[in-house]
Specification:
- The protein has 434 residues and is mainly alpha-helical.
- It folds into two domains: 21-113 and 231-410, no CATH class; 140-211, no CATH class.
- It is built from 13 helices and two strands.
- It has helices at residues 15-46, 53-73, 78-93, 95-110, 149-160, 162-165, 178-190, 201-211, 220-272, 285-316, 334-384, 392-404, 413-423, and strands at residues 111-113, 133-135.
- It has a two-stranded antiparallel sheet.
- Helix 2 (53-73) packs across helix 9 and helix 3 packs parallel to helix 10.
């Protein structure tokens, strides 16, 4: 039962009991926030997996350039060279946006816009709130409705104490220009004009609290309401961060293994080349075949890596629906949908290069082996996508929105139609439309 569904006659709790319950709730909230931040801190440390990138990128680019340049200089097929170059580029670079998105999610978790208690920005833009980033947890201020007249006076005296102010504003006016710089900052951000010298310190303290996200209308009830919203935001953000981290880690592992395998094949070709890697006759087709095969194998591995976290979650929580249901939430599956599109391109490019190289290396036998391995890798890719229910339109929108830096889903025209239909029917409110 919701709180607004309880009749006032059933509410037997006194105001003082309610306030005590609010204080207890705020204490529990601190524990909850602390727990969530410890999880985020572990992920922040774990995001150092970006340090693994140079370990395989150091050799990946030079080795693959050896293949491409030697094949091009020897006049080998441009189509095959372009196909294997495209596959190698996408394989190597896909983990990079995954890590960038992870870092972006972490920044979104730890920071927000400084809008609590923010006022209009001034005469030039009176209806716009200025973006000013701050830490997600705002400054802590004592609630105004928890003060008696005597304690209010004592608190005011404490806030006016020069040692207290000195924590935010230099005590001495010989501040090496600090006041001027701070006043310029708040003036340019919010249009606030503080008095010159020590006369403006009260306003500077107020603006320092404002930069810390401490709003003026502090009451116990408002503190509880804002804490509810703060915890909800944390839970939503940490959900995205953990999923993104899991996908990025698994994708990086698959990419590292395949890239090291491809680099090892190029090294072996260099050792066997009589010209010590100059490849005057072009890069050997049998090794080009194997390199293309390595990238073809990457496609099902990467596809399974980005879809694995949600599969495991659904498997560990039986009786809550099917795994395919998760694709109704396009925000949750945006990155994996875009990644699946990339794996398909890599699979097509590497398969084409593999069949062509097999034909050049062993004619009919090479073509047969290339086609057989292509069929096998495509079957493995489709098997990895079991229960993948994103439509081609969903995949296209996921890629398009990621390139534009937007989260999925795209605005739905169907939703607009349903809203318009519901607005014209007084017995069918929008909130009740399913």
């Amino acid at each position: 039962m919701n709180a607004d569904e309880i009749h006032e006659s059933e509410l037997t709790i006194s105001d003082e009991e309610s306030r005590a319950a609010m204080r207890a709730f705020l204490q529990r909230s601190e524990v909850r926030l602390s727990t969530i931040h410890r999880v985020a801190q572990a992920l922040l440390g774990g995001s150092a997996l970006i340090l693994l990138l140079p370990l395989f990128l150091r050799d990946a680019f030079p080795k693959m350039m050896t293949v491409l340049i030697s094949a091009y200089d020897a006049g080998q097929s441009t189509v095959a060279v372009a196909a294997i170059g495209l596959a190698a580029t996408l394989v190597i670079l896909l983990p990079v946006p995954a890590i960038y998105l992870l870092v972006g999610d972490l920044l979104g978790f730890y920071f927000t816009s400084n809008t609590f208690g923010a006022h209009p920005t001034g005469p030039h833009a009176p209806h716009r709130v200025i973006f000013n980033p701050r830490f997600i947890i705002p400054g802590l201020g004592f609630n105004n409705d928890e003060l008696s007249p005597k304690t209010r006076e004592l608190l005011s005296e404490g806030r006016d104490d020069e040692w207290t102010r000195g924590l935010l504003v230099p005590r001495s006016t010989d501040d090496d220009g600090w006041r001027d710089r701070f006043d310029t900052r708040t003036f340019e951000v919010w249009g606030v004009v503080a008095g010159e010298g020590a006369a403006g310190d009260t306003e500077r303290v107020r603006q320092a609290f404002r930069l810390a996200g401490l709003n003026r209308d502090r009451t116990l009830a408002r503190d509880v309401a804002r804490t509810e919203a703060l915890i909800a935001r944390h839970v939503l953000a940490i959900r995205t961060v953990v999923l993104r981290y899991s996908k990025a880690l698994l994708l990086l592992i698959a990419t590292t293994v395949v890239t090291l395998a491809a680099s090892g094949l190029v090294d072996q070709a260099v050792r066997e080349d009589p010209t010590n890697g100059k490849f005057h006759d072009g890069f050997p087709y049998r090794y080009m075949f194997l390199v293309a095969l390595a990238y073809a194998i990457w496609a099902p591995l990467a596809a399974r890596s980005v879809t694995y976290p949600l599969r495991v979650i659904q498997r560990r929580t039986p009786g809550v629906g099917e795994h395919s249901d998760v694709y109704l939430d396009k925000h949750t599956t945006q990155f994996e949908s875009a990644s699946i599109f990339i794996t398909l391109i890599v699979l097509l490019a590497s398969s084409g290069a593999m069949i062509f190289s097999g034909a050049k290396a062993d004619h009919a036998g090479g073509i047969a082996i290339g086609i057989a391995l292509t069929v096998a890798t495509f079957a493995a890719w489709l098997l990895a996508l079991n229960d993948f229910r994103a439509t081609p339109r969903d995949v296209f929108n996921a890629v398009r929105l990621l390139l534009r830096g937007h989260d999925a889903p795209a605005p739905s025209p169907t939703l607009t139609t349903v809203r318009d239909r519901a607005a014209g029917s007084p017995n069918n409110p929008v909130s009740g439309v399913h």
